[in-house]
Amino acid sequence: MQMEMTQLDGMVVHTSWNQSKLRMAVALSDGALQIWDASTEASGTSHLTLTGHWDAGVGGFCPKVTWAPSEYGDVVASCSVDGVISLWEEVILDGETEGTWRRIASLNTAQLSVLDMQFSNTKTGLLLLVISADGHARIYHTIDVLNVAKWQLQAELQNSRTPIEINGKYTFLGASVAWRSSTSRSPQPAFAFGCNSSSSSLNVAKVWEFEQSHQRWFCVAELREADELDKPVNHVSWAPNIGRDVRNPQMSCIEHVIVFPPVSLPVPGSYEMIAVASGDGISIWQVAGAQEKCSVRRVARLMGFEDEVWQAEWDMSGMTLASAGSDGIVRLWQANLKGVICIVINFAIIMST
Amino acid sequence: MAIRRFNAPLLAYVSPLWYIDDYEKALKANEQHQQPRNAGSSAAAASSSSSSSRVVESRKQQALLQSPRALPLDWWETVLDYSRNISAVLGASKSSSGASMTQSTKSTRDMEMPSILRAIWDLLEIFYVDKHASSWLPEQLINWLERYDKVLAILGPTIHCKLAVLQPRLVNTRFPEDDEDYWSGLTSALAVGWLDVVVKCLRMHGSYQHDQIDNRQTENGLVEAVVVLITKMPRLRPNPKLDTLGVTYTFKPEFSKAWERWRNQIAKLNSSSFWLECTHEGTVNGLKQLLSVLLGDVNTLTAATMHWMELLVSHFLFIRPFLMGAEGLLSLARKCVQLKLPAEADQMLDLLLAILGEDTEVVLVECRKLFDPWMLTHMVELLLAKNGQAQLFLTEEREVLDGMSLEEFHRLVYAQLLSSHPCTWQLAPFYLASCPRQGQGLLEAVLLMQPVSSHSKAPMKVLDICRMYELRSVGDKYMRMVGVYHWKHGRKGLGISWLQCGRDYERLSCAADELLAAVSQTSAGDSNRLQELDGLIDLLGPQFEGFGGLAFLHRFRDFKVSLYSFQEAQTNLAGIDKQVVAGKAATKHLIQLMKDGITPQRFLLPLLQDSVELLEYSGEVLVTAAETNALLLKLQNFFLTNKHDDINSTEIMSQSVAKIRLALACNLGRAILKE
What we know:
The structure holds 2 protein chains of 2 kinds. By secondary structure, chain A is an all-beta fold.
């Protein structure tokens, strides 16, 4: 969809689109939140209009903002640097015609800055995964379906496993989480989680899956190859799965420097794709199976970036990957008919002051 | 901040969805040419191509029902209809030779951008679909070039460009024969068979003018002789063309004789002595050039043409006029390419050669490079019309595409493009429905992405699509989203209806809980609010019989209403009888609420607090001793079960309970005395 360029006033810290990609939540450096709505004209172009602006009351800047799934209404979560997460809901009160954003819940995490957070809709209720500056992933759960006001901590997970890692004092500069998409055929919730920390051993993206029988989360896979050891994970993105499966697995060709030995997936069937932006490249991983049968393999390492890659996001079909980095270029990547992943379009962002 | 796009695909050729890629540019073009091309018309074009696809798809299904193994032999005729419908959608093409001479080169380039699609589409139709055309390929190519030479101008200089530049000069020149470009333009136009242009321009020759001092009769005679020869040029065609010059022959022997006779006449004229009598050197040379073209001189033809397709067509017209089929076509085309190598890389070269050689694989690869997914999706039907090898190539499942075939892959990509825009997303389901591997997954994702807001028309359309494609669970999920949206945005009744349609009993139960809370907080005097809540409760409907809260809700409302009547009677100082009747009715509803055990715990205390008013009524004892005992028992149970909650609320509760207990004790004493 063609959308007119919109200039946002103020120092924008983070943005997030809702499920229909027509509403954008913006977190500003002064702790305010904004909602921008897209509307389409008869001519076919769309533009954004500011429809909501309020002080999130975090007493500082708001580092992250994210939307809940639409089945819970228009709900956004914002966080403060001291680890307080606020959930905001748009309602139209009796006698009013315009929507109002009101705080419906407050979660006090670990009094540490929140590095990333994402919602996921599961059969047992809504989950909110929060990564704090101590490198821990906390999963909050609510069984409310109409008013998501009451939350409880379901699990607290560490990305570290060895005692040295657990007891060490490390600084976490950033983290990224991505839930397995709701279109996946697998019934259990799962997510990928990676960090950018002062310890290279912790800078690894891992896949966690919930096991129903034990009612626990297990780390089922690590997404790291030898050449990524010192590279911090800046972003992870789990591709939507609209029916991807393989009957006779073969090695895909890899472009841009690295070629792997051919490895076949153990069991033909449905598999998932995860993109991990680490250092100056993006790794594409195939994940198949579940729990102890889970197997992963890196199918591509996309290179050619001048510097750090900040973000990599899949499109709705999981066939195109968009990347952005410190070189100011947005690249769109697609696999060609031979399975080689290559750039199809570059966009250079030109900053004007 | 601005975004600069670079390293883009070779050509951003436009399609019926061009506004998505290049809307701004198109808008500018529209402003210049006042053409009503906007997103709406483009969406309409996408819609038209979608309808044509639907028709051909349904015919294919019918044909496969009758013979599941293969399509009927005349299937290509159905595809030909489809192809012509799509071609019409891509815009009208005028003959370049005459009418478009009045347009400037620049405007031609801008206006005919979408025609590049049509040009390729029509060429595919000639080679892949139309079986009749395969017997007359050279003639089809001549006609094709006549229509689309102006389109080829996008890629580099063509004869059309040359004539477009020449035309305004001719209008203002009295004696064009003095201008070398005049003769050069005529030679070029003749080389590609635009006879009417050549004749019209020759008639502008200065020797036709009456008010001349010089004697130019011989010169005029030679010009007229050439005009007559051009007008009588024999052509081997399937059908006579009424609006063009030349004499049509449908049978080769007749054509052969006529051709020999015509060529002899040209040769005779060429060697006649009249040339010596003509004093105008420009005319002599120019006319001789024209005769060289007519006689099929290779060097003249090569010099007169600019694009390799033009040279190819000139070969068909003047060097190999008897060629009818495809034999030798590709090798001849390659020779012409070698002779007319473009200065810059011709991005269409490989595609055009692949179509001439019917190399499906290369055609697809080149189209993928040059065009957007619209073309790839719709042209597959053409490629499959008669070519068995293409069938295998396009429909085999490929591991690299996760088991999808190329046909499905292109449809999926196009459907994704359609679904990205509010004007076109509704066209996507048709394409996705014919994608067996991943179509349903994407369709579900597309449907669940549609906006649920009240000013959007999407909800009803989503439901229609879910019904059409039997996507019940997706429909339920979407209705749930719409229901929650309305519930939260002040339209609770609409929200309940949508949640009921989506069979979301969990959320309905929560909604009922909220209504209960609202009723309990509403004062009995706020009749409007009570009426509104009453309506919402009714909306929850009888299908919620199994849901315990609903029965309570109705009785709770009855109690509130009767209590209000009792209060009204007291305030208005109505007669004691009336007050007692109202009070007893309220008591009756209260006791019913207490008896059946349907009242949720959290409503017990507010109810008992309300009952104090009845218990303390001085006019008469409204609550009997047995009833008071039952209420006392309830109160005691409630107090014991809620004792361990947090301290603050327990303190408040204790005070309330004490007050109620006192009122109950007083009433019990009065009731016992009375009984």
